[in-house]
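pls design
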């Protein structure tokens, strides 16, 4: 069976963009493939040397993913730092990774520019660690965003190079797996662009109803169309895109018709949209709170995930040692 690996940086709470752009696809993948989903806590040290209480941060994210429906019975869900085998492979890969090629990686150059006081070796070797994450399970498919393409090319290069240097056909070349079928971009409600943490316009799954209503009611609108069937300006289009994502087709059609005959009342649209978002997120929020409070359950999930991941990783690393010559 094909193997899927994906890593998630622990960078904050999940928002609607993360859910519809990424998490929803993980839910589908876990039914079709042997999946390994992990939280990349080591990677975050390349930019955040003092992450605070890693365990607390990691569990917050884990609770959110579990609340969304990522199922520890179907996929292996684990924390990167629980699987030390990854480090051994990282070391082996680094022995055949060259300074020049690592320095040419765009995200390295970008981060080096952003944090000139901390251009550390971990930052430089981010792609080898990522490659180790992936090929430690001999993965075939890696669901990632377009921004990860260069890291994925490096992972393929390192897998290929290992095979060539040691004269084996051991690691498959992992391919990026884009969610083409329904590549949704969740818009921000502040007039333009996408919803994102750094954009400061995110509606989080863990937001309570009052917070969501407040955020939606603040959405940017205009004075309304004056001609029937006008093209919608971006801010308005974004509101309708959001309706399409979270509301029923009837609701969408209702407001679309109102817009087309210039009778739209944005206040009504926003109220409806807010209620539909609340209806969607409320059960997830409830599960997040439940799961976060259940420390024993979280412990169990983390331990079970680590065990599954280590089983697969140690099988690989034993072979790798033998191939290299540690017999
Ligand atoms: P953010 O942009 O909030 O920092 P990340 O970059 O951590 O989010 O993205 C995590 C995942 O969520 C990625 O797979 C990304 O493609 C997806 N994602 C983030 N924002 C959106 C959005 N507005 N619409 C669709 N997918 C998104
Ligand atoms: N670099 C990825 C990101 O920034 C996170 C990541 C680390 C990852 N290791 C991975 C993704 C392995 C897929 C597979 O989003």
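designed seq:
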């Amino acid at each position: 069976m094909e193997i899927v690996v994906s890593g998630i940086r622990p960078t904050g709470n999940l928002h609607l963009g993360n859910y519809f752009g990424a998490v929803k696809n993980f839910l589908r993948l876990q039914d079709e493939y042997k999946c390994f989903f992990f939280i990349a806590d080591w990677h975050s040290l390349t930019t955040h040397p003092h992450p605070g209480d890693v365990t607390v941060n990691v569990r917050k994210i884990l609770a959110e993913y579990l609340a969304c429906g990522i199922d520890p019975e179907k996929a292996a869900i684990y924390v990167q730092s629980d699987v030390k085998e990854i480090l051994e492979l990282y070391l082996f890969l680094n022995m055949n990774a060259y300074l020049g090629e690592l320095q040419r990686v765009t995200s390295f150059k970008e981060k080096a520019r952003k944090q000139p006081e901390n251009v550390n070796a971990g930052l430089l070797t981010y792609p080898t660690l990522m490659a180790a994450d992936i090929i430690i399970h001999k993965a075939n498919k890696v669901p990632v965003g377009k921004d990860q393409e260069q890291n994925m090319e490096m992972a393929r290069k390192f897998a290929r190079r290992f095979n060539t240097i040691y004269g084996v056909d051991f690691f498959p070349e992992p391919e990026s797996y884009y969610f083409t079928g329904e590549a949704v971009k969740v818009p921000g409600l502040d007039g333009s662009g996408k919803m994102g943490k750094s954009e400061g316009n995110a509606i989080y799954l863990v937001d309570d109803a009052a917070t969501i209503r407040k955020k939606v009611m603040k959405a940017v609108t205009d004075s309304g169309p004056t001609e029937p069937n006008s093209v919608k300006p971006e801010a308005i289009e974004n509101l309708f895109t959001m309706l399409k994502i979270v509301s029923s087709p009837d609701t969408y059609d209702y407001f679309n018709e109102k817009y087309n005959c210039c009778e739209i009342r944005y206040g009504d649209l926003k109220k409806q949209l807010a209620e539909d978002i609340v209806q969607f997120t409320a059960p997830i929020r409830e599960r997040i709170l439940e799961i976060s409070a259940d420390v024993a359950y979280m412990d169990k999930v983390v331990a079970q995930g680590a065990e599954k991941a280590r089983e697969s990783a140690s099988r690989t690393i034993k072979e790798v040692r033998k191939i290299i010559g540690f017999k």
